[in-house]
Write a structure and sequence with these properties.
The protein has 111 residues and is mostly helical. The protein contains six helices and no strands.
Length: 111
């Protein structure tokens, strides 16, 4: 459906122009449209590479939410539907157990 993809692209452009902040727009366009490497962009803007990843993540999330709201994409969980549900058991009992072996038998310094 060429009409559907054209309208989806128009919606993406609208979101980039109207809903992204100037900072998000500048970085998103540089990385996605102009294909500037993230390392080079981070060095040029004086930012850390992780900051670039975070800005791109936030911009894509805004674009995705707008496309879901307009009906161009399915809801937010459709990509992970095949994954099993995460276990809800707390992990802390496992990491606070006494170590096995020599370290468990070592006498304490308080004696």
């Amino acid at each position: 459906m060429p009409g559907r993809s054209a309208s989806r692209l128009a919606e993406v452009r609208r979101v980039v122009d109207e809903e992204l902040t100037a900072h998000q727009r500048r970085i998103f366009v540089a990385v996605v449209v102009d294909q500037i490497p993230r390392d080079a962009l981070a060095a040029g803007l004086g930012l850390q590479k992780n900051a670039i990843y975070k800005v791109i993540f936030d911009a894509r999330r805004k674009i995705r939410r707008a496309l879901v709201a307009k009906g161009y994409l399915e809801g937010p969980g459709f990509r992970h539907a095949a994954r099993p549900a995460r276990c809800r058991r707390p992990r802390w009992p496992r990491c606070h157990r006494r170590p096995a072996g020599r370290a468990a038998r070592r006498p304490s310094a308080r004696g």
